[in-house]
Specification:
The complex is a heterodimer.
Chain A (H helix, E strand, L loop, with lengths): L1 E5 L3 H13 L3 E5 L2 H7 L9 E5 L7 H11 L5 E5 L4 H9 L4 E4 L4 H14 L5 E4 L2 E4 L4 E4 L2 E2 L4 H12 L5 E2 H9 L5 H15 L5 E6 L3 E6 L2
Chain B lengths: L6 H50 E4 L2 E4 L3 H7 L7 E7 L4 E4 L17 E8 L2 E11 L8 E9 L1 H48 L15 H51 L3 H32 L8 E4 H18 L3 E5 L6 E4 L1 H17 L4 E7 L4 E6 L9 H4 L16 H11 L3 E6 L6 E6 L6
Classes of the chains: A alpha/beta, B alpha+beta.
Organism (chain B): Halomonas shengliensis
Main location (chain B): membrane
Protein name (chain B): histidine kinase
Chain lengths: ~220, ~450
Amino acid sequence: MRLLLVEDDALLADSLLTLLRAEGHQVEHLADGDAALARLASPGHGVDLLLLDLNLPGAGGLTVLEALRRHDRETPVLVLTARGAVEDRVRGLDLGADDYLGKPFALDVLEARVRALLRRHARTARLVLGPLELDAATLGFTLDGEPFPLPPREQRLLACLLRHAGEPVEKARLVEEAFGGDPMGDNAIEVTVHRLRKRLPAGRLALRTVRGLGYLLEAEG
Amino acid sequence: MRVAHSLYGRLLAWLALPLLSLGALLLLQAGWQAKATADRAHDRLLDAASLAIAEQVQWQDGRLWLDLPPAALEMLAGDAEERVFYSLVDQQGRHITGNAELPAHPGADAESGDTLLYRDLEWQGLALRQGVRRSRLEDWRNRERFEVRVAHTREGRDALRQALLRGNLAGILGMGALAVASLLLAVRAALKPLTRLRHAIRARDPRTLVPLELSLPRELAELREALNELLVRMRRVRANQERFIGDASHQLRTPLAGISARAELALRDTDPEAWRDALTTIQATSERTARLAMQLLSLTRLDNPEYQATHRPLDLNACVRRAVRDHWTSCRQAGVDLGAECAEGEVAVNGTEWQLEEALANLIDNARRYGARRITLATLRSPPRLVVEDDGPGIAPERRLLALRPFHRGRDDGEGSGLGLAIVDGIARTHRARLTLDAGAEGGGLRVELRFAEPSP
């Protein structure tokens, strides 16, 4: 994946470059807003994910984001900023950022967010989490390369959880996506989750309950 | 902002307008008076002339006879070369003698008696002033009635009227000029304090916030007081900022000193295991320091006496769900079970979303630091309430109030900044919500409740 990091702090940029390159991404680094504006000016910029600091020399991060969103609504943008207030986050998200991390952040949180964003906007038709893989075209799962057949409801539920792997998904949303908003879904979902949980390979994939909120799928080990 | 008119111009206009109308009235009155005076003077001449003529009327040869005294007519013809007319008419209205057959006066009859009746008259293309006197012979044999009509053109009257008017006009114009001049001076003098105030403001050092000391008339003194009140409020804001800078530098210096010392020590060592220990400590401390900096900023913004909250209707359930989503992963990694217990539907309050999120983040963070294993965020309705409950050590009842004070820290806590609950308290205040600290449901732990007012419909 081709990532663009726009961050003016040399120490932080250096650490992020090391981290993201170790994950196997091609990462390009720019240290000011004007350069980022120029780089992202045309639709053929070829960037798969933009990591954007808001407090930049030259054009500000929000300006860069606005300019990008004028011609490109697809490329995911993860905003990184030291402006801690949630107000800024709201403004960033309004302008079309996909996610937001306040500095300082833990590197593993950043890794997880980057992975989630790339997965959500994947141009490839395959979603992967640990041993589990989903072919979006056929909606068929494989586990360790072997076909992993599931009943339709469980399959839709797992696909939804896999798209948001690593983050809690609200129950209402799961009902919407896996049961088409069926009013009976609210109770049915617990049964379905229970069944699905038993089918998943223990110790490798975990379907966790987020008390009072929903569920979360993550890889273990 | 609307374009303001000049105060000077406005004052001048309002004062000059009545002055000018007064001047115009005076002029009109002077005109009338000049005419009246001129008429009175010349009417007396008419009176005298008609009387002189009437005295010369006699009865001779069975009819009225007038031997016209030349002085009577000369009296009427002044320097202005007026034309003078007279006629004598008998009781039947027949013209007896005279140099013109002047018309009768409609008011001249038996009742009018022996007085002169005047009128302005247009006669054969001439503007005339006419006097008509009815009289009778004072002869014991004959008491025949007759009428003397005299008239002259108006040149003399007009000349006198204009002369009188010219004199008056000069006086009025002179007074007007004097009035306008003093008006200009008065307005300028009245506005002078305003100019002084402007200079005083302009001459100030922009960094100073001391009150304006300037003696001014009452109306402007009110303006000065309003300005001074604004300055006082600005001083409070600035004092708040200065305190923040002081607090922040003090609070941040300590952990930074720790990091620096730890790094220095580690560099003296050669054992990679010691480096690893040092790096772990440094990482933990720097994270804590960054969090502290953010908390200081939030607290200062909330403590700002001029801070005006702009609350909007929002759903507490949405806040709780977002907080759980945002913090669940980090809590799980720390072995803490974070969950929600939301009331059905929406729990509507008027509030500011980022502040409530900040409050929840601080409460979750606090609970974790003090050793809770299970944290539950809950909402309740009627009245709307936001509850954060944990199974940690809790706070003893007598220490609960103290815990809300900034920089107060629990005894066995080495990590907290002592700002978390103070921030939550500040947020509760901006929401006019009541913050209560209690023991948890099973007697242990801490239950923090924010009780909001029902949102007005």
